[in-house]
Amino acid sequence: MLEFLNRVFGRESSNSKNVAKERLRLVLVHDRANVSPELLTSLKNDLIKVISNYMEIDDKALEVSLDGDDNQVALVANIPVKRMKRVTPV
Amino acid sequence: MGEVIVVTSGKGGVGKTTTTANLGTGLASHNKKVCLVDADIGLRNLDVVLGLENRIVFDIVDVTSGVCRMRQALIKDKRYESLYLLPAAQTKDKTAVSPEQMVELTEELKKEFDFIIIDCPAGIEQGFRNAVAGANKAIVVTTPEVSAVRDADRIIGLLEAAELREPKLIINRYRTKMVNRGDMMSIDDMNEILAIDLLGVVPEDEQVVVTTNKGETVVRDDQSQSGQAYRNITRRILGENIPLMNLEEPGGFFSALKKMIGLK
After folding, report:
1. How far apart are CA A50 and CA A40, in angstroms?
2. Chain A contact set for B193 (CB, 8 A)
3. Which of A52-66, A70-84, B14-28, B208-222 has the weakest average pLDDT?
């Protein structure tokens, strides 16, 4: 009965396809963010290379990961800086 | 040189084999030389779907392992002179063929056929890697259900990783009535989620079961909606610009009348 009323009054939220779409959207965010460890390692090494031009970092303690919450995925890098370099602008 | 198209989906049971059989038959009806390859080693089915199960002598593993020549393993279709099947082996497993051997095999077939359509097994393991190895185009089949769409999304990623860019989508078992009342994802919903080019939409149709029961393909059934959908997809593959067909389900007074006087 409630479902019928919802339909009569055009309340979209009761439509199961919207539920399906929303669930899929979330699950695909996580599926697509599932990056291979090799890719992360290679990204990490590149990051170290670039950042080391500017500052001395603790590359042993460096952490790179992909974090996803419900709506988005973020690349999170935790990079402890040991010392700043004196960069001479070219 | 022929085109090598792999038909894949990730999830099982969404209609890869049916799609392969119908597109093959459709292309052959346009006088194209077509070879269908069943890459589902251990679970062969394309032969029964085409009604050719009694004619198998050699299979794909016999070819790749050198037991016979390609010509000896190819089975000619019952109706179309230009349609052939290379059946899968039933008693071996997916590791009986390597991706390198599949590349070699498709290279050989390309010289003789206009189209080589590979029926990919479900899953993302070696069977999938074999099926995509020699392909230069890919079709992803899915149904408007969460599980099938999720797997299709994964497969699209894997196809791109295998350098098979721009796969095309076929939405199978579409039920307009359910879509209209908001209980099934629509074509637009699917396009939005998967974001790849749409090759066609095949409505849910009992005739698919009926024709398959008899070892025939629905694409040859002029009366059925799904047959029309497959004929349209065939022509799109051949480069024609065919708009999506009207998917409203037949019903109401006139179709009831037609049924009564035996038009359908």
Report:
1. 15
2. 21, 24-25, 28
3. A70-84
